[in-house]
């Protein structure tokens, strides 16, 4: 088993290091800023240093915490944990100088810390400037530790009281650079980990099968890291897959079930009635970008992406694009905004079995306004069932009961808070009350019911918390088809307490590690109190041009 390397900085009398030393599988390197002669004159320091050396720890003097890599050979720079208790520039240094010290310390720590290592910084009550401080100082009068650490690529992942009483023999010292103790009541230990680098996504080309040939197209930049992620694959432990598995298992108790395992194309062609073109990610195949002879022999056609199709076209009264003659554009495709067209196509097949629930699932793509719960991509699951005319209401009730049971079972394993799931008639909603998911679904075709979910202590279900919809469609004279569509991402967020949809798509392993295979938990954020910035933008819209907020 690998030995855990721990670096301690700014030790005053080495009593903290002595209390920590001796743990199995841990190698301690204890350092201080002063020389050995200065330190040994402090009470109990010599005794602590002797104990450290007896237990195999390294003791290093005159170490500057802002230049750590200068003190260790390259092969010795991989520390698993760095402790810096009560850093201070000394004497009567103010907040600005101490902020600068922390900033340089964090940059220096990044050069000697393992990728998954931690940095522990203990500060006196109020110094950190986070909501964990009680009372909390004004921001400008604090050390602003979260913002300072962010400058070096660190995020605050945990914060807890600094419990000096649990550390045998520990005695704080160094008040105004003297061998005097200081008040550490209410002190906090701040634990930092590395943040993932801000991603820069290169243009992504996606290859798919379309009309019996291979087609490649450039993926819109906002979706570059969200294509082919495999969250719904059988071996996935992603929360959206766990939610889907629970839903289908519960439905299978009431209905025969058939998963549609055919490959559903990412691209769709043709009109979706009522859907405005600005809500769609358009992909346009152009003969001007014709494939080379070599590519033709491999069956590959090129595609060109236009995020905003704003040339050679006008729109009809529904906002649909009409390509004018002379534009040399042959076909219009868009990234599928819904699985409903595929579900409707299934009922036309000869193999479609009345009384059986057919299950379709996969990511869908919609342009929308940006907010924590508005998603340009999410995983949709659609349940399709054909029943005899007149029995559709009992089918709907059985569907909803199964959905309720499975969601309640998932929620009980996660949280003790109250959960409400209601089936509400679509006619009871105003358009302004709908969330983005429900509003878009309402554009596709007529909806009979919304499935609403609310998790709180008030016991009420707000009309806006729609996670699913139910619609029906007549087919022939005898059968009625019931469609139930659920937003798996929104369900996972509400059940696990995830406050921003982007977290579901993160590549940070700290996210998925919280969800072992087949289990959901209340999500614990690993980035606490992140700095928040608000920016305004102003622009002019030409006269006569309709303003489109998306």
What does this structure look like?
The chain has 550 residues and is of the alpha/beta class. The protein has two domains: 4-194, Vaccinia Virus protein VP39 (Rossmann fold), CATH 3.40.50; 233-263 and 351-513, Bira Bifunctional Protein, Domain 2 (BirA Bifunctional Protein, domain 2). The chain is built from twelve helices and 23 strands. It has helices at 15-20, 36-40, 45-54, 95-110, 145-150, 239-251, 293-297, 340-346, 392-414, 436-444, 488-496, 509-512; strands at residues 4-9, 26-31, 58-60, 79-85, 113-123, 154-161, 188-194, 205-210, 213-218, 257-259, 267-268, 282-285, 300-301, 304-305, 313-315, 321-323, 331-335, 357-365, 377-388, 418-425, 449-456, 466-475, 479-487. It has a seven-stranded mixed beta sheet with strand order 3-2-1-4-5-7-6. The radius of gyration is 30 Å and the shape is elongated. Residues 286-330 and 457-464 have low confidence and may be disordered.
Keywords:
550 residues; alpha/beta; Rossmann fold; BirA Bifunctional Protein, domain 2; FDXA1 protein; rRNA (uridine-N3-)-methyltransferase activity; SAM-dependent_MTases_sf; aa-tRNA-synth_II/BPL/LPL; BMT5-like
């Amino acid at each position: 088993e690998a030995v855990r390397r721990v670096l301690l900085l700014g030790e005053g009398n080495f009593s903290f290091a002595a209390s920590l030393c001796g743990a199995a599988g841990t190698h301690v390197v204890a350092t201080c800023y002063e020389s050995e002669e200065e330190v040994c004159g402090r009470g109990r320091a010599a005794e602590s240093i002797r104990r450290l050396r007896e237990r195999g720890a390294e003791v290093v003097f005159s170490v500057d915490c802002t230049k750590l890599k200068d003190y260790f050979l390259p092969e010795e720079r991989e520390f698993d944990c760095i402790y810096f208790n009560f850093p201070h520039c000394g004497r009567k240094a103010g907040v600005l100088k101490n902020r600068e010290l922390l900033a340089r310390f964090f940059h220096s720590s990044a050069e000697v810390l393992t990728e998954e290592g931690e940095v522990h910084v203990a500060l006196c009550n109020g110094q950190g400037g986070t909501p964990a401080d009680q009372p909390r100082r004004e921001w400008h009068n604090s050390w602003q530790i979260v913002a300072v650490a962010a400058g070096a690529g660190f995020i605050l992942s945990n914060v807890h009281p600094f419990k000096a009483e649990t550390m045998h023999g520990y005695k704080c010292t160094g008040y105004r650079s003297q061998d005097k103790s200081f008040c550490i009541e209410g002190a906090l230990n701040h634990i930092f980990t590395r943040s993932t680098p801000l991603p820069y996504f290169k243009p992504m080309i996606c290859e798919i099968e379309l009309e019996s040939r291979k087609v490649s197209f450039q993926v819109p930049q906002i979706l570059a890291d969200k294509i082919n992620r495999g969250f719904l694959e059988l071996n996935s432990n992603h929360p959206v897959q766990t939610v889907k598995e629970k839903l289908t298992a519960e439905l299978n108790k009431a209905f025969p079930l058939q998963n549609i395992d055919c490959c559903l194309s990412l691209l769709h062609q043709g009109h979706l009635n009522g859907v405005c073109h600005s809500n769609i990610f358009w992909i346009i195949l152009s003969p001007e970008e014709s494939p080379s002879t070599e590519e033709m022999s491999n069956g590959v056609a090129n595609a060109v992406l236009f995020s905003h199709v704003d040339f050679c076209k006008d729109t009809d009264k529904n906002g649909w694009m009409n390509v004018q003659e002379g534009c040399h554009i042959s076909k219009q495709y868009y990234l599928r905004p819904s699985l409903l067209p595929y579900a409707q196509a299934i009922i036309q097949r000869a193999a479609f079995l009345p009384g059986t629930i057919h299950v379709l699932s996969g990511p869908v793509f919609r342009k929308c306004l940006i907010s924590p719960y508005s998603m340009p991509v999410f995983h949709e699951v659609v349940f399709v069932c054909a029943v005899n005319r007149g029995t559709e209401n009992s089918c709907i009730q059985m569907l909803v009961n199964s959905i309720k049971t499975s969601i309640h079972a998932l929620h009980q394993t996660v949280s003790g808070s109250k959960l409400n799931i209601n089936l509400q008639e679509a006619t009871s909603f105003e358009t302004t009350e709908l969330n983005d998911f429900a509003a878009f679904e309402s554009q596709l075709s007529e909806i009979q019911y919304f499935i609403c979910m609310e998790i709180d202590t008030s016991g009420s279900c707000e009309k806006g918390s729609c996670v699913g919809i139910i619609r029906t469609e007549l087919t022939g004279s005898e059968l009625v088809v019931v469609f139930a569509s659920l937003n798996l991402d929104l369900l996972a967020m509400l059940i696990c307490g995830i406050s921003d949809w982007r977290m579901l798509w993160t590549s940070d392993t700290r996210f998925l590690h919280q969800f072992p295979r087949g289990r959901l938990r209340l999500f614990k954020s690993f980035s606490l109190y992140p700095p928040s910035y608000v920016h305004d933008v102003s622009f002019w819209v030409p006269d006569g041009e309709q303003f489109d907020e998306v």
